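step=encode ok
step=design start
structure_in=
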């Protein structure tokens, strides 16, 4: 029997998201999520997508990722999709930080694990959870290839001029301080899909990808290769996000420490968790912000303007970086769903060949689609992202190659 299934695991500090896919047709067999791992009561939501099963929920203590993954394995087994199945070809792991070394998806061995561990100081919130997820999956199926798909990999093609900060070189090198970028799996998938939508080869197309979710990043993609992206050493840099400041004069941090008497840890939480849209107006959900604006709320309106202003600056900047832009693609929760954000982001940019057709923009759809009028020089697209499918595709391609 040919093994055609891939389990995709996205392990966070207290959560695991998973999807089981059949790579013959990229269909989902089951999806689910475990939350609040390590807390008094954890919750597992499991949805089988084959055999007509109903979604199920379990609430019970799960002390660590191992218990959580064992519970996931039980749920899959109950649907006849057990991890012991010979049909399972590999497990694909989202790994947030791959540094400079990992430019491609990689089959995990001891040396790869060591390198992912070595990167913990530059990704202290993310890599430890990814490592735990990998170890647990290895314990469950030691015989199976485990593949790491890195959030940073797509951005490793950035030239040094975009990747380096103008920071003292010795200090930067000693501490590996540079711009790595994140959301790479999404930027890769969406830029490729955008080329497809235009009926052109990715090598011939220049795209600005705007991944606007709760976290948000922009990237400039020339002929399928990333040449700049808005997130940096960490996901804090760049666009205004749900709870992160994005770009800010770094001296604000000295000021808050020296004059405001705040500790580094307090400032870290402030700029990552309590700023951005939620810090500006108390809400980070774009639906709620739009509802408040429609009801005449000025605080929400200003938060929206600040969000859009930053977005426009990046569109302009990446236009200049690319020189020629064929398409701008909106993706992720806000980019895929919030028509007012798309409209406002390109408003007034007609001189750059950018425009949005009001009727096309207001259509709701799960399909990749163009929303620019026919006369516009630059295509504006909405392209739903699918990071799990991209991880599964990359994982399966790698293990199929190995077995070929
Ligand atoms: P993500 O991180 O990609 O899952 O995106 C989550 C964010 O997408 C939420 O915080 C909302 O701000 C936004 N979002 C989701 N659905 C909608 C919608 N229908 N309209 C506007 N914004 C939405």
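sequence_out=
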């Amino acid at each position: 029997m040919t093994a055609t299934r891939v389990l995709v695991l996205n392990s966070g500090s207290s959560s695991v998201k998973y999807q089981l896919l059949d790579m013959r047709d990229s269909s989902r067999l089951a999806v689910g999520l475990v939350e609040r791992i390590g807390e008094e009561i954890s919750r597992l939501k499991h949805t089988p997508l084959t055999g007509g099963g109903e979604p199920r929920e379990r609430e019970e203590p799960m002390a660590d990722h191992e218990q959580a993954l064992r519970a996931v394995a039980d749920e899959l087994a109950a649907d006849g999709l057990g991890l012991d199945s010979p049909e399972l070809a590999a497990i694909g792991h989202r790994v947030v930080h791959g540094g400079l070394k990992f430019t491609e998806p990689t089959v995990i061995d001891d040396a790869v694990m060591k390198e992912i561990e070595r990167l913990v100081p530059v990704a202290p919130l993310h890599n430890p959870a990814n490592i735990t997820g990998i170890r647990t999956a290895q314990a469950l199926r030691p015989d199976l290839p485990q593949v790491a798909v890195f959030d940073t990999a797509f951005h490793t093609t950035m030239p040094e001029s975009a990747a380096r900060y103008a920071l003292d070189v010795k200090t930067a090198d000693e501490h590996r301080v540079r711009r790595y970028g994140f959301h790479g799996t999404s930027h890769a998938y969406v830029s490729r899909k955008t080329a497809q939508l235009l009926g052109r080869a990715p090598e011939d197309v220049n795209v600005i990808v705007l991944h606007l979710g709760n976290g948000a990043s922009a990237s400039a993609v020339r002929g399928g290769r990333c040449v700049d992206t808005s997130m940096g050493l960490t996901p804090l840099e760049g666009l205004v996000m749900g709870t992160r400041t994005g770009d800010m004069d770094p001296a604000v941090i000295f000021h808050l420490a020296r004059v405001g008497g705040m500790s580094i840890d307090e400032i870290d939480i402030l700029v990552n968790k309590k700023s951005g849209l939620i810090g500006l107006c108390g809400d980070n959900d774009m639906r709620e912000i739009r509802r408040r604006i429609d009801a005449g709320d000025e605080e929400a309106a200003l938060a929206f303007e600040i969000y859009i202003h930053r977005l426009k600056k990046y569109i302009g900047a990446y236009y200049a970086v690319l020189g020629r832009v064929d398409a701008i693609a909106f993706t992720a929760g806000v980019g895929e769903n919030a028509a007012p954000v798309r409209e406002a982001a390109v408003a007034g940019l007609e001189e750059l060949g950018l425009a949005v057709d009001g009727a096309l923009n207001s259509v709701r759809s799960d399909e990749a689609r163009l929303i620019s009028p026919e006369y516009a020089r630059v295509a504006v697209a909405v392209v739903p992202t699918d990071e799990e499918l991209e991880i599964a595709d990359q994982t399966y391609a790698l293990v199929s190659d190995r077995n070929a």
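step=design ok
step=annotate ok -> The chain has a mean pLDDT of 95.
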